[in-house]
Design brief:
binds pyridoxal-5'-phosphate; single chain; Rossmann fold; 6-stranded parallel beta sheet; 2 domains; 9-stranded mixed beta sheet
Amino acid sequence: MAVTDQILTKTLLKSDILRHLTFTLGKDAPHASVYDWRMALSYAIRDRIMEPWFASTRRTWGEDRKRVYYLSMEFLIGRLLEDATINLGLHEMAETTMAELGQDFREIIGNEPDAALGNGGLGRLAACFMESMATLGCPAYGYGIRYEHGLFRQRFEQGQQVETPEDWLNQRNPWEFDRPEATYTIGFKGEVVTRDGKEIWTPGETVFAMGHDTPVIGWKGRWANTLRLWGAKPTTMFDLDRFNRGDYAAAAEPETLARTLSRVLYPDDTTYQGKELRLKQEFFLTSAALQDILRRFTSSHGDLRKLPAHVAIQMNDTHPAIAGPELIRLLVDEHGLRFEEALEIAQACLGYTNHTLLPEALERWATFTFGNVLPRHMQIVEQIDSWHRRTYPGRPHYVGIVKHHEVRMGELAFIMSHKVNGVSALHSDLVKKNLFPELDKLHPGRIINETNGVTPRRWLKMANRPLSGLITETIGEGWEADLDRLKELEPHVPDQGFLSAFDAAKRQNKVALANWLKADLGVSVSPDALFDVQIKRIHEYKRQLLNILETVARWQAIRANPTANWVPRVKIFGGKSAPGYVVAKEIIHLINDVGATINADPVVGDRLKVVYPANYNVSMAERLVPAADLSEQISTAGKEASGTGNMKFMINGAPTIGTLDGANVEILQEVGRENFFLFGLTAEEVVTRREDPDHAKKAIEASQVLQDVLQNIAEGVFSPTQKDRYHGLVHRVWHHDYFLVASDFDAFLAAQAETDAAYADRNRWLTMAAMNTARSGFFSSDRTIRGYMTDIWSVESALQG
Ligand SMILES: *Cc1c(COP(=O)(O)O)cnc(C)c1O
């Protein structure tokens, strides 16, 4: 930008902020709060998204482009203000303008609540995909639910997780636009009657779904797409009869009933509960999205058989798998197509992304519930199933969509899609071999792989200003949208000047984190220590337990020999447990108990600290990832589908200590064995190891260290007020240990000893760290989205070059 343009742009920005403060917020500058300034800045930035947004929509219509529709029950977005300023190239300008107005930009950014409309990786992936589709000029809509309460807030009381409701919509959301004209009726229950050979469904309950649009702006503002979130509204506001009879509370019942639909996000990560409300939410999202898609299509096209040439619909996990039957229903019941014709159209439009192999995560609805909530869809599901059985006579009798009085959503999604993808090379392989072996044989080539990625704009450019500045200084601009260019850093890695600049950037992030930890938790940590970070949902398969057992072992070793030359270490944990997941909550309690004991031990001092800031979310990840030295990715092999946290750390120059699981396999391949702390059983070894009923006992008896650790915990060393607190937990490790914590313990200990040695050798460590960044280009979600565009969606970018 020319200097005069820049001055002009800045003058305009400042006057727009002040104009919004006055006329939108109704505030006089001397009395404006941080909230007021944040809103004023958000509106001023939002104004600048409108032109690219409208231009993108106009071009998509004008050029009659194929559109992608990404259906997801979760979008874990985080904050939008800073992201928008970064993608519009207005970050520095916004910062200096706010400073001139006497405001602290960081404080304003921090005032925005996280949009936490998701649980973890699956929802965050959807958010990264939206940003990458906008950056790549892929015409797309995201469809989700506008939950009034996103994922609960986590607090610790005496070390235990306490959940409180999250209320991000209590404040005005400056990024969304209500779309009352995009309102659809969604039906549930009721009955189906046959009339003149046609099935007529009369729902027993109805609600409206109304769209709320948030623009999603891509890198450099060259393209913008729409995230359309559905909010539920009652079809009858009010029961007037009851009101007139004086029953005022009951008069409002229809409204209450409808609103529960988009009230709250289910907080279960990788388990499903089979609750009727959840099934209703899934149908609510899916039906609203499909009605919207068909309305948009029919407004400019006549022949619904052409739908697949114009529409690609991606199902993020099985949560929107009702899309198959619902699209058939709309095409047959409302548009008069034949069943098989409708089925083929639906298949050609639909794609299904599988996210997990965990059996407890695979959605299955009792046919009773399914048939009650969606009677017409139950018929269609049976029809699809018998069509598939007829068409593929080789199908084994035990394979099918409806089995043992349950509707299996994985099989439904598979059969109704033209492509099914896993999310890492290993995972896609296991989807073929273990999850859908029979369907894979009947439909060779349908299962493909699209390894996950993360957006480098948020996770490097925005979250890590010191490192992104160094990268631009070293290899010039443009890497943000072409992450493979990071490999141009490699020739600089042997250069001492570069390495110390890399070191300085990391240190700056570590100092900032240390200051925040002091303020948030009152714990002092030294920025010279190795920051060892495990942040993710708390789950047995992710093995936070393995990490805390190793922490106890380290503590015992330090106490036994305090004068040895210890590499100081800070163990950082973050993550929430599903509210009903008792074992995960016990692990949280143990981490906090161990932390309290270790942090108060004068013998240990700075050699070891344990910190666990509460309420891990996207904004906390943005703080922790850039400051991490070591990335903990230690799941039981075969259980983590991909992981995306692992990629964020790699990009930000933190080597991984990890198992051969999910995308760790590809991280290892990209970064090289010498830059990765590999340990543990492989997915195949895990299966064989489990066949020995005494696997845990044998592993523990072979490890004196593990015996001592378990004994300390069992004796109540970390729970002096309740010595038997962890008896159950220790007993499970000895006698059950499904996730093989004991079997991998010694190998983990040895790998951690390697990290100490590597960290003590400054040059070696910095080289490893820098190599991780330099070789992380593959893990941009731009690469992932390009894969989906060619392999699944057959859609082209609207931006040339
Ligand atoms: C990236 C991210 C995740 C996923 O982390 P994994 O380590 O891949 O499980 C979960 N939650 C938040 C807030 C994230 O940013």
